[in-house]
Design brief:
Strands 3-2-1-4-6-5-7 form a 7-stranded mixed sheet, with helices on both faces. Helix 1 runs parallel beside helix 2 and helix 5 runs parallel beside helix 8. By secondary structure, the protein is an alpha/beta fold. The longest helix is centred in the last third of the chain and has 35 residues. It folds into 2 domains: about 190 residues, Spore Coat Polysaccharide Biosynthesis Protein SpsA, Chain A (Alpha-Beta Complex); about 70 residues. It contains 10 helices and 7 strands.
């Protein structure tokens, strides 16, 4: 019998976490050819999420472990923490705690995994009741990511089943700034995609507003590809060509003895060049910040050992 751990990152889910875990359990308990465990990773909640998970842990008829991060490190760090403590299992399933990743797909994912696919991932065929603005931002993010990295991420989600080989490969990556979906795609293991319609979230309000999505998009793209730096070079070349053309025209008019009306031209050139320089400095600054974060070599997350039920990886052995 195979051992599979379900890794569930959470943060401030007190309103629904206990009932949601119960619903996930009701789905997986019907799968009698696999032994399941839950691994809940709390990403610095400041409500009663940890207490409610502990209540479920004591009452559940399934192994439930809890990892509590010392503060809010972000979803990528929470996923990494969960996977690093899942390397002793045959496979790991990463899913959200708000039931937007339908647990009823887990059985199908496992069957595809048993057919030989090392990665089985849920792909969104529709985005549910997502707002128009968010849908537009997400669509353009996927297009930009594909243009910069060459990897198509359209419709992909964090809802994935990963074989232990994939989990090991992912955990061995050393970078601090991570994009889980992109890195799993970059590893390029045999993958099966399963489409699903996104149900309504059990969260009353999503933490992913337009600003957070924009910041996440910038972080994901710049941590995955250096192509935006080449755009800076391209803009510099375009500006140089425009300057040569404008300068050549000015000299030609001067040699002909024509009056040169240069104020408008000069102002436009200053505005264009200044804007490109500021944009270029901003892009370079983002990458310098990434380098700064990497060379500090700080831990990607810190665990609150007082609340943690997993002391080390050996405690996860079945």
């Amino acid at each position: 019998m195979k051992n599979i751990v379900i890794v569930i990152p959470t943060r401030n889910e007190a309103l629904s976490i206990e009932s949601n875990l119960q619903k996930i359990y009701q789905c997986v308990k019907k799968i009698d050819f696999v032994k399941f465990s839950f691994l809940i990773v709390d990403d610095g909640s400041d409500d009663r999420t940890i207490d409610l998970v502990s209540n479920f842990r004591h009452a559940a008829k399934i192994e439930v472990n809890l990892i509590c991060l010392r503060r809010h490190f972000g979803k990528e760090a929470a996923i990494l923490a969960g996977l690093e403590h899942s390397r002793n299992f045959d496979a790991a399933i990463v899913m959200d705690s708000d039931l937007q990743h339908p647990p009823k797909l887990i059985e199908d994912m496992i069957k595809q995994w048993q057919c030989g696919f090392l990665v089985v991932e849920g792909v969104k065929s529709s985005r549910g009741n997502e707002s128009l603005l968010k849908s537009i931002l997400v669509r353009y993010f996927y297009r930009a990511f594909k243009s910069f990295s060459g990897l198509s991420m359209e419709g992909e989600s964090d809802f994935k089943l990963l074989d232990s080989v994939v989990v090991d490969s992912y955990c061995e990556l050393t970078e601090t700034s991570r994009f889980f979906r992109g890195l799993i795609s970059w590893l390029n293991y045999p993958t099966k995609k399963i489409p699903f319609d996104v149900p309504e979230s059990t969260r009353p309000n999503s933490s992913w507003n337009a600003i957070n999505l924009f910041r996440y998009a910038i972080s994901s793209i710049t941590s995955f590809t250096s192509l935006p730096l080449q755009i800076v070079t391209l803009l510099g070349a375009i500006t140089f060509v425009l300057s040569v053309i404008a300068g050549g025209k000015a000299l030609f008019d001067k040699f002909l003895g024509n009056a040169v009306d240069g104020f408008t031209t000069v102002i436009l050139l200053i505005l264009i060049i200044g804007s490109i320089l500021m944009f270029s400095i901003g892009v370079i600054g983002i990458y310098i910040g990434k380098i700064y974060d990497e060379v500090k070599s700080r831990p990607k997350y810190l665990i609150n050992k007082d609340k943690n039920t997993v002391r080390n990886i050996e405690d996860m052995k079945l």
